[in-house]
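User: I'm putting together a teaching handout on how multi-component assemblies are represented. Below are the sequence lines for each component of a complex, exactly as they appear in our records. Could you produce the 3D structure of the whole assembly as structure tokens, so the students can see both representations side by side? Please keep the chain order the same as the input.
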Amino acid sequence: MKSPPREGIVMRFSWEMCGSTIWGVVAMAVLTVTLSGNLMAQEEAAPAAAVEETATATEAVEETPVEEVGEDAYSSEEYVASEGYSTFTVNNLWICISAALVFIMHLGFTTLESGLTQKKNAVNIIFKNVWIVCTGVLLYAFWGFNAMYPGDFNGYFAVGSWFGQSLNDTAMTTEAYNPGYTWWGDFIFQAMFAATAATIVSGAVAERVKLPVFMLFSMLLVGFAYPITGSWKWGGGWLDQMGFYDFAGSSVVHAFGGFAALACVLILGPRTGKFTASGTQTIAGHSMPLAAIGVFLLWLGWFGFNGGSALSADPKAVSYVFVTTSLAACAGAVASILTSYAVLSRPDVSMALNGILAGLVGITAGADVVGEGSSIIIGLVAGVLVVISILALEKLKIDDPVGAVSVHGVCGVWGTVAVGLFSFGGHSLLTQIYGTLAIGAFGFIFSAVVFGALKAAFGVRVSVEEETVGLDISEHGMAAYPADTVPTPA
Amino acid sequence: MKSPPREGIVMRFSWEMCGSTIWGVVAMAVLTVTLSGNLMAQEEAAPAAAVEETATATEAVEETPVEEVGEDAYSSEEYVASEGYSTFTVNNLWICISAALVFIMHLGFTTLESGLTQKKNAVNIIFKNVWIVCTGVLLYAFWGFNAMYPGDFNGYFAVGSWFGQSLNDTAMTTEAYNPGYTWWGDFIFQAMFAATAATIVSGAVAERVKLPVFMLFSMLLVGFAYPITGSWKWGGGWLDQMGFYDFAGSSVVHAFGGFAALACVLILGPRTGKFTASGTQTIAGHSMPLAAIGVFLLWLGWFGFNGGSALSADPKAVSYVFVTTSLAACAGAVASILTSYAVLSRPDVSMALNGILAGLVGITAGADVVGEGSSIIIGLVAGVLVVISILALEKLKIDDPVGAVSVHGVCGVWGTVAVGLFSFGGHSLLTQIYGTLAIGAFGFIFSAVVFGALKAAFGVRVSVEEETVGLDISEHGMAAYPADTVPTPA
Amino acid sequence: MKSPPREGIVMRFSWEMCGSTIWGVVAMAVLTVTLSGNLMAQEEAAPAAAVEETATATEAVEETPVEEVGEDAYSSEEYVASEGYSTFTVNNLWICISAALVFIMHLGFTTLESGLTQKKNAVNIIFKNVWIVCTGVLLYAFWGFNAMYPGDFNGYFAVGSWFGQSLNDTAMTTEAYNPGYTWWGDFIFQAMFAATAATIVSGAVAERVKLPVFMLFSMLLVGFAYPITGSWKWGGGWLDQMGFYDFAGSSVVHAFGGFAALACVLILGPRTGKFTASGTQTIAGHSMPLAAIGVFLLWLGWFGFNGGSALSADPKAVSYVFVTTSLAACAGAVASILTSYAVLSRPDVSMALNGILAGLVGITAGADVVGEGSSIIIGLVAGVLVVISILALEKLKIDDPVGAVSVHGVCGVWGTVAVGLFSFGGHSLLTQIYGTLAIGAFGFIFSAVVFGALKAAFGVRVSVEEETVGLDISEHGMAAYPADTVPTPA
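Assistant: Of course. Below is the structure of the complete assembly, with chains in the same order as your input.
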């Protein structure tokens, strides 16, 4: 349930200038300065209009200090008093709060991934996640937003441009733009979404990927690839026109990220010591409390991820999505616990945690259209699938330290297909299968080509020595948990 | 301030089939499939109606893609334009956000309890908390919701049934159901509440309880006992009819959970090595930062726990409850710090943290009806009480590793009684005392009987060897903080 | 964009009675009892009025149980049905949610500061942060709120009084008070803000400050000094009358706190072993995951800090502020990463984290009035500045363990000045410079005088032995991460 494509300011942006991570960022800075010069010209119109407005309302001028001119520009008195303003206000507020909730998923991913990996790579994981969310949001502003929700679009690819909109363009901040949110609310919610796709990959390649290569790859994935497949569905592209349904992104975000991760781990290979002649070794994560913090924060964030995808605060839609999302998460955990107990003969806490995520990923495609009972079944199946998939990938000697391919890839596909099985709104099972495979395949192929090219050009993997020492020391020159510098006397 | 009892679909549910934890869950899965089959029949009516609705609004059909049929079913245009819709929308949104805030209390409990116990039992605590919230929400859907807010009720016991409601029943998603929330908002908020009761027990029995026994016990406590006492007050039962007042659950949730915990620790006995011939030993928690994260998250969640108990977003009620809740928490911490300093001669951080919780539990019964000054006094008294109670239980050789009995039991009773002392709305002190003792006694007796029976049947305590090794290794076969698997060279 | 000064109940409060921390708190308790006695008299009027109100609406009385009398007092039916109620409800809800978000910044500061310092001082940092937020909110109730937003005011200093307002004063809980919030929403949002100022100092003086002295100092800073400078701008004082602009507190909160911190670290001196004959030593923080949790939570809280400073849920204002706040945070991190890479030749994770905070502090003064492009530039400059400043302070042998002076002081000034450079609303660059220097200077001078006097009276620094052992053991008698008490057999 995403907004139909809208008329954006489409402007060509030469991505080729970003030849490397560093250059990309320098370019971003230069671009920012240049663009903001242009934008200032646009923005400069705003206060003038505001002054005019307040000038006609002379009594307001007398009451308000100088800086409240800006405030008046935000909400003219006539508009605030108009019918519909309060509904629009609560709708937009919920989209903004949802953006904040999706934002906190980045902390969830950071703590989950670092908790499920070794102590000597925790700094590296934190650094990567900071990088992804920060460059992800900036790149979505520079290119992704107008590429994913384009005005000029052939159904497969849109060019994209700077997201900028004059602060003073009233049409962008009232129901005239969308009954559910302003242009700015729309952007920040979608920008926080976008960055999650690359974060999924981050966990899968942990403990052995070269940092600068991953920094560049993640920028290309969030900045370039995600808006393309996203636009296929949410931008009104060819999958949307086929009737494909993906409420909040089981495919658009999760299967996309999960299969991108699969391509990367296949190219990268397993961690040293994982698969040896004497068998498969469990490389335990260094902190289960950190992992638990991560999963609970992800669940919290999912209330915004799914709830905000109602694209308004509509009481029925938001509350129903909260219920299906939670039931699926609960069922996923219970199923994972039982499955892992049956298979591994012990109640495995990391499986329980991944079961919650499996249920959440599974319900994401159909949270608004499946029944309550169905949401439990979707969660149960996801919870079983994630355990089987994690164990199967190990058998296949595919090393995914945090289970990202299983949680996001496998359960993302399942959730999308489940819409065809459990919804009653005319969503074709075949279209659902077709759509999720198309999106997953694009994520996989894009990553295979780009990550493969990076491997050929620079290598994607640190040396065995660096891996053994840990990326924290070898890439960052610091430990995650240093001993006290000024030693305590005995 | 809870909704009056409502007409629910009452259906008999044979709980006896759930003879053990595993069987219970299997039964839940089977039931789910069966029920959802039935529900699908109900739900199937929905899209048909939706199609009719959109068919009459032909211009809407032309503008919206296929999947938005579901969306139209949520919010018919006439309703959205109606007077009152925006107030209902903001009310329901606040209840949903409150549910998310109460949800995060489960992470708060997880981190607090694991922080205040030993390193070797952290996995076990995380696992138990995941289990409680996940089965708690599911059981509340299967039985608790319709038992606690029943339609057919003798004032002491209601039968309960699956919470299911057709997605298409408009009466359940408008003010016609309740001016403050939809049926779904109501359920998810109350379900997140329910699971907190068992979490309180989890901390008290930590470090020595048998996992499968606790898993089963917690299911019975959340799924069966909590809805019974809850219905006495919030379901319109006999305590409610007596004029007993408990705004957000000082008794219904906290005293209930605290006295259930007391019964369990009495049956379970103290941790090995806690009370020895040479005196009482302090068994320190393994991570104060984890404990601090827990308490701050609990405080955050309490804004939803108490604020959401206004059952709408009414500006006066919500903002006033935020103020009294915060003042009591602050006063609780200050009083605990001073009291522990006076008694222990040092500024004890775990007492400071428990003081915050004491203040929060204390204000919960009367957050909407006591004055600001009174909220500070309630918090101060709670902060003193919690320290005295923790030390007194130690003297009595009752071992409660996280102070759950003192925080939730003692301060829950205090908060309920305080309504009789400090409110001016005609709340009788005697009724308050009577009500809180009744609820606490039920929690205690239920737990004594059920936990006692489990002790007789299976034993409730791990062996001394398992306790010494720690439950993480003995029950789960893994450590919370494993060393790096691939060792770093010297 | 703060509310204009309002008519408050001004009452003289003799602060001199609080000669020491302990006495201050005892005085607070006594005062509470005394005041609440008086307040009860005021509050007692409420239920009477409520009863009258419900008595006239006889059908309501018949339907509602006894305790709902209180509820009726909150929201009379006529008011709820009135035009504007729903807009007021969503506005007030957003201010309350913002208060909860600003509250969680205190957990962010707690985890950030403890993560960036040594393991042996983590308990001490947690304790200090609990103390600051708890006494901060209480003191703001007792004095700060009515001092900062005074009714009787010479433009430089207001006397202040207990914040109490009768629960039944309808004028305080409707648009009649303010279109954006009730009296209670106003208080709780501003109280959570107030406590952040002292928290900034807490990190800078970590690892060597005497606990009781800091406890007293922080109370004076939050309770006395912050409301004074705050009133200069947000209370309608002389800076406000000059046209000085500070949207959410780059100066009022951050520069104030940062320069107060600078005065304290200058008086306190560096940690033992930081600057030795053989050079400057890096004293590494003990947990990067804790630090990361802190920064992400601070960013989350900033959505309330800045978003709530719109002082309503106005769609344009809130969503626009979310966008500029996030863009600046992202740009700050990218700039800090590149700058630290250029200077230190490694991707430093603590610089990346401080870069996020630098961007957030920088955008805070102008989040509502600068363009999107400008918000990126402000963030980029802040990200560069913070690295340069941290390194420069080290060169100057000024020891600030967490970089508080650089993040909050330097970037707070930058953000305030940037409003003069990048906004188009007539904010004079000179006035901005003048205002931020005035506020920073007051923070610095107040702290220099008070902390200097405390040094002369009691000493502000622990002994070298205590510092070496760590404050956790020497001040609190406990460790942050104790080993398991009941040892695991080999």
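A couple of points students might notice: Chain C has two domains: 20-68, 89-276+283-476. The mean pLDDT of chain C is 86.
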